[in-house]
Amino acid sequence: MTKGIIHYEVGEQVDIYLLIKTVTKGIASNGKPFLTLILQDKTGEIEAKLWDASPEDEVVYVPESIVKVFGDINNYRGRTQLKIRNIRPANSSDPVRIADFLEVAPMKQEDMIDKITKYIFEMKNPNIQRITRHLLKKYQNEFLEYPAATKNHHEYISGLAYHVVSMLDLAKAIANLYPSLDRDLLYAGVILHDLGKVIELSGPISTTYTVAGNLLGHISIMVNEIGKAAEHLGITGEEVVILQHMVLSHHGKAEWGSPKPPMVKEAEILHYIDNLDAKMNMLDRALEKVKPGEFTEKIFALDNRSFYKPTFHQ
Amino acid sequence: MTKGIIHYEVGEQVDIYLLIKTVTKGIASNGKPFLTLILQDKTGEIEAKLWDASPEDEVVYVPESIVKVFGDINNYRGRTQLKIRNIRPANSSDPVRIADFLEVAPMKQEDMIDKITKYIFEMKNPNIQRITRHLLKKYQNEFLEYPAATKNHHEYISGLAYHVVSMLDLAKAIANLYPSLDRDLLYAGVILHDLGKVIELSGPISTTYTVAGNLLGHISIMVNEIGKAAEHLGITGEEVVILQHMVLSHHGKAEWGSPKPPMVKEAEILHYIDNLDAKMNMLDRALEKVKPGEFTEKIFALDNRSFYKPTFHQ
Amino acid sequence: MTKGIIHYEVGEQVDIYLLIKTVTKGIASNGKPFLTLILQDKTGEIEAKLWDASPEDEVVYVPESIVKVFGDINNYRGRTQLKIRNIRPANSSDPVRIADFLEVAPMKQEDMIDKITKYIFEMKNPNIQRITRHLLKKYQNEFLEYPAATKNHHEYISGLAYHVVSMLDLAKAIANLYPSLDRDLLYAGVILHDLGKVIELSGPISTTYTVAGNLLGHISIMVNEIGKAAEHLGITGEEVVILQHMVLSHHGKAEWGSPKPPMVKEAEILHYIDNLDAKMNMLDRALEKVKPGEFTEKIFALDNRSFYKPTFHQ
Amino acid sequence: MTKGIIHYEVGEQVDIYLLIKTVTKGIASNGKPFLTLILQDKTGEIEAKLWDASPEDEVVYVPESIVKVFGDINNYRGRTQLKIRNIRPANSSDPVRIADFLEVAPMKQEDMIDKITKYIFEMKNPNIQRITRHLLKKYQNEFLEYPAATKNHHEYISGLAYHVVSMLDLAKAIANLYPSLDRDLLYAGVILHDLGKVIELSGPISTTYTVAGNLLGHISIMVNEIGKAAEHLGITGEEVVILQHMVLSHHGKAEWGSPKPPMVKEAEILHYIDNLDAKMNMLDRALEKVKPGEFTEKIFALDNRSFYKPTFHQ
Amino acid sequence: MTKGIIHYEVGEQVDIYLLIKTVTKGIASNGKPFLTLILQDKTGEIEAKLWDASPEDEVVYVPESIVKVFGDINNYRGRTQLKIRNIRPANSSDPVRIADFLEVAPMKQEDMIDKITKYIFEMKNPNIQRITRHLLKKYQNEFLEYPAATKNHHEYISGLAYHVVSMLDLAKAIANLYPSLDRDLLYAGVILHDLGKVIELSGPISTTYTVAGNLLGHISIMVNEIGKAAEHLGITGEEVVILQHMVLSHHGKAEWGSPKPPMVKEAEILHYIDNLDAKMNMLDRALEKVKPGEFTEKIFALDNRSFYKPTFHQ
Amino acid sequence: MTKGIIHYEVGEQVDIYLLIKTVTKGIASNGKPFLTLILQDKTGEIEAKLWDASPEDEVVYVPESIVKVFGDINNYRGRTQLKIRNIRPANSSDPVRIADFLEVAPMKQEDMIDKITKYIFEMKNPNIQRITRHLLKKYQNEFLEYPAATKNHHEYISGLAYHVVSMLDLAKAIANLYPSLDRDLLYAGVILHDLGKVIELSGPISTTYTVAGNLLGHISIMVNEIGKAAEHLGITGEEVVILQHMVLSHHGKAEWGSPKPPMVKEAEILHYIDNLDAKMNMLDRALEKVKPGEFTEKIFALDNRSFYKPTFHQ
């Protein structure tokens, strides 16, 4: 079995199958068109240039199709790049499927939904429980397939559900240490906080923003969904406003997209849990790519910082 | 007829009826309780101290009751203050009613609703028209009575409706000059933009924030209302998202409470019209109180600026 | 008649006359020089690359000369680009003049000056009227030809005068709704606010900043001009300081270039009118280029926002 | 047994022992001196005014002495205040000791040091373990008695040690969920991060800043201590720099006092754990004072937010 | 001879002449009027309260009159305050004049003007020299009497001229070390940079802002003056724009009131010299009031910092 | 003798020796590798492209080796670039040494250390003198060779020592004018403020940041060094904390890397002197490259400003 594309080093030769993620056409300085391909497998992605692209090439090499590539790993402005010597589209006799190349959450969908269902089952407040269950059910299919974001963290298939599962475990561990926390609110907040992404984003693959996503954002979308769910279920208690507030405020500050800052204790903690899990995810993935004694590349979503892997971390 | 309370100058004596707006109890340095009264009439308000307040005084002098006061106008730290020499609660034989002391919009409720109805009637897009009419009707009573804010601008009875009427006229004048503007969107945006205040605020008198107002804010409340109205009316067109976006973005920037900035032309213009009308209202009221050649007091909502009234403005 | 250059789509072929706006020489990766041409007509501009440029090419293809180009419209990094197949300089037998390619205000100079003169004629305060008339007369020729800016808004021939005319109409419409406004101040402020640009900028074509423009800016330049005009006309009233303040403060905030914020009501409104007209101009031009259901490109001067054209805007 | 001072409501009468925390002399408007006393017991503190204070009063009523007070609970500008009717210093026959009035951590010093020692014992990296043990031992007495801060959070006797113990438990829970974390670094970071406070602050009671605290701050003080400890122990590995970095960066950002932001994964997590425990402490104490359906007073260290206690939180 | 008012300590008794700087009337909690007097001598000022002020007191105790006061120095909220036991207006037989109480620059006006004249004489560029000499001569009387500011630094009689003299010496010392600096520009910039204050401020005593000062500021006023001076002298060289730029940019940044930042080397250095001299003045005066081992009070114009006087600074 | 590389103009031909500073490999659009060389001599550096680089080229052309280049000066995106026609490595028979190409401070190391020693000799406070002398001696070799920074200012061999010498002269000149300044503190602060750079940076050539430099920064490194020096010398006076504070605060603000702002007068002045000398160095070097009447390129460390060289500066 071949190793993942991100594990090749500059100077190595590759002869492997990869999935085309995006294609952009350009005109080279010699006046001829070329294609910039982003190729991916489960481990990550690499840029490749197909020089002197023919009109046929433009038809054949399109996103979400598989190719067999032979070439060399080079370094271009500090990033690895694949220099293509030979490329062909995969055909039905090649032993590969698209799913082989897509990164997915490290947990099965069934296991995730089981776990979340158990957390919902633990809730004692019926209003909170019913609204949460209703909305999860309404969007369950998308929820189990969507990424948590288009980039930065959990940006893979089922990333949204996996982010929620990790946060639920974290919420439980924290609630064990600080018993004054309302677990129902915390669990419901975790489950609902990013559920609006199933409307904000276009889908699990080649994810972009929808018009509603651009103009309203997942936060306002979900506040609206909670309001409609409560009306549908005939629930009028203060739990509705509090749940809307949890979702509304989970980005923490107005300048980060929350029109109100957290004003309920569990909303404040939800903001923390969300951040902590997202950062652990980003840090682990960035540090995986470097050796002890090295710095990671700058991580945009962490204030553009580079992180150091101590030499004693073997 | 007596002149309004804000037109008395330091040194003058008053002997008039006023309405108690708020009462706060304090303990003086001699150890005796005193009451700080905010007294108002239609023209504005003044602070007064009732020293050596008896327990009976605390019972008698409560908000929303009328008093007859005899005293002097003093200056305390740059603000006028009423020094009470004599005070008594008004009784049934006094020729005064609460409504005589409350500032109201300079236009009758019937005239305002007529004018707004005419603007709705002019709309050509049925989806926009139906949602706007539905929501205005749902909250019409409160809409016609509420202030536009607890302070800063249009903070009087029917201030909300009057602000909307002024903005509609401004919207029309601007749309006449820039014909590319979509009048339906602009009028609907004006009518709906602050309608959530009827849920955010407690009512037309002694106005405070409700719990939902504090935790969600009028913007998110109204986005939700539009969503529910559309569902109720069976409207699914893009107009729903655009109207929600108009309301969502009318504060202009994340740090001013809009989770998304305006991303539709009419939303940008709505933000401008709202600002312009609010500022004209603040400026006119502040400049009314000073003479040519003087500066107004600092206006908090205008970045704490003082404004100068030129000497040639007689 | 040919359609404007910005209306061609990727894949189309062009065979048209265009004006060279700027030329930049580069060295291609094959070591040979190439020219990056910005070509324009009245509708806008497009980038083109002339590969393998000979020394003669560098002499022939210079700014403000007309060329006949045959080539294809391509897409390069999200922007259209013209791929030149054939190019030649226009000669005296070609039926084209430079003026055919320059964007100009959509109103004749005579009409604009007539309209502005009428507004000046309406002024009642003689000091304000005389200073305004004196300065407009002093710089009338440049005022009628200059753009309002080097980019962002009204960046075409006579853009400055057109911006002023639009603002005057807007000022009048607003003053009709808010009668407390001093029309004299407002009209004078509109006419003078950007007049310093005739000294700050180099001229109507290929506009750059002068040394005085860079070191002082149009605001300080104009404050000085008002001071000198008043001295010349023997005017000493407070109107001089107020007019200087109107110009000084019209950018609204220190960080936007106004050493004092607006502290006179009409100065505050002038800042609003200026912004509103500039934004309408930017928005209309950006939205013209996209179809319903699309977002515009990011507009730098509008906080880098993209604007959406609703699908129901046919 | 009497209830704590913060549990009295406006209108109640008190007749209890309290400890004087601070005394400030003022001159009343009648020209006579008065004393502002901050009185405390284990539950919190209250302000009291002693009007017409005699020279003897100034001698008798000094910080860290106990008084018997008889008086009424009033409300002054939204805060409760004790109106003294009668006051006398406690004497040897009164059944009270200073320790009865001081808030202390809810865990015994022995238990805390045992727990921390166990965590140090779990460390596998000898360099990290030896530096941590050396510094804890060097400052153990102060560490077990000092508060974690002069205000905001854990501002009571042994607050520093208690904050550390809570953070260690939190660190362990998080490390269980994210096994890539280096527990040695995390535990050492927790134990050392605020240890410099034993030099920055003056002591456990009436805590103020020392000169070194003001001019250097606990972060730089501790970085220096780690450097000296390593020199003393002859340790030169990269662990020294990493531990210094953990302490240096634990405030997260330059503007919050960390000259370098976290650039090691465990440093980032340490910053989170510190924040989470401090905020839980602040929130619990603020929410304890209000009833369901109420907002807390504004909490300065939480961006001046008020927090709401839901009505369904009985 | 008596010692200065700022050198009395809490507990001391005073029986001295002082000048009334400002008077503010208030109403005490017993309902009686009182006067807050700011009393000053050459060394500084102190607040005093005159309780139970009679109407005659209000007539007698007015700004810029001298009083004989007998009373005690107290501490009120961390500031010394004079508790008046006895006060009377000074009369013609008292051996005091107003000038005895006003702080003045520590250098004679003749010496300052001589020194400045010598610097102007050293200039080699005739355009710079003539403009500087013309403007200094035009405003010489006010220049020699005005303070440099209403507060913060050099806020005493002739403070403006003294600030300029100190800066000239500093400019010379720096130019000696960095010979590439243009001394003419630097000296002219120093002399002109704050000269607009003679129009911005009301005068040497009880200094306030004029209307032109408020609406334009001393920077724009002076840019205008340089323009008019150049026109008057028939000077058209680039020196005019550069001198205007030096004045324009000397606050360093837009948000500090300079519409353009320094863009000429000498303008950048002028900004530094101005700051350095102002800060030395503030620091020396604040540190004079404390003993070694103490911190000064917070200095607003130095970012509200307290400064420490080391114990080894005897 | 050849002129320096930065003095060649576009269009000129060069045939000179240069030192390779850095080499980066790229892949051209024709698929072939190329090398981007930064070539330098004492006057500065220039970029050059070596197209179609062979594997041998990659071995031969490495940093810190000398080459003979024949080629043309071109302009690429506003910057000069050297177009290589011919290149070869220098060999032992070429009359050049590496030191010929490195920029060094304009003062000999012996003269610098003599001068600094004289300043230390002038100190009167033995604690300050001993700590300063001890640390200078400990790191003297590196101190005399290191640059003051990797870029922006004094970024050449011995730049650190030269920056210190210039600052000492400036400190003396300022102390002469403001005699209240403590010269010992000021001189010691100047000498120690950047000494931590000998640990933060990698060395005098091809300077980068060390791990300790990245994670701690030169400020914290030096605070630690002062602490260890004091312990080593048995000095415990307040001078230790004050010296640590001087170094700690010399960047002036938290957001510029100083965890505490200057809180001692000499610390404030040190911050000024440091800035002034660094800015003079940047400005002189940027202005050297332009002619009168031109603007410099944007200087990043001066807020990205361009500076103008007046036409009368011949």
UniProtKB/TrEMBL annotation, chains A, B, C, D, E, F:
Provide the species name: [Anoxybacillus] calidus
Domain HD, first and last residues per copy? 163-279
Q: Which residues form a coiled coil?
A: none
Q: Which GO terms describe its molecular function?
A: 3'-5'-RNA exonuclease activity; nucleic acid binding
The EC number(s) attached to this protein equal 3.1.-.-
Q: EC class of this enzyme?
A: hydrolase
Keyword list (alphabetical) reads: Exonuclease, Hydrolase, Nuclease
Q: Does the keyword Lipoprotein apply?
A: no
Quote the HAMAP family the UniProt record gives.
Answer: 3_5_Exoribonuc_YhaM
Name it.
3'-5' exoribonuclease
> Does this UniProt record's set of keywords contain Zinc-finger?
no
Family annotation (Gene3D superfamilies): Hypothetical protein af1432, Nucleic acid-binding proteins
Q: Which InterPro entries match?
A: 3'-5'_exoribonuclease_YhaM (IPR020873), HD/PDEase_dom (IPR003607), HD_domain (IPR006674), NA-bd_OB-fold (IPR012340), NA-bd_OB_tRNA (IPR004365), YhaM_exoribonuc/phosphodiest (IPR050798)
Question: CDD domains this protein is in?
Answer: HDc, YhaM_OBF_like
Q: Which GO terms describe its biological process?
A: rRNA 3'-end processing
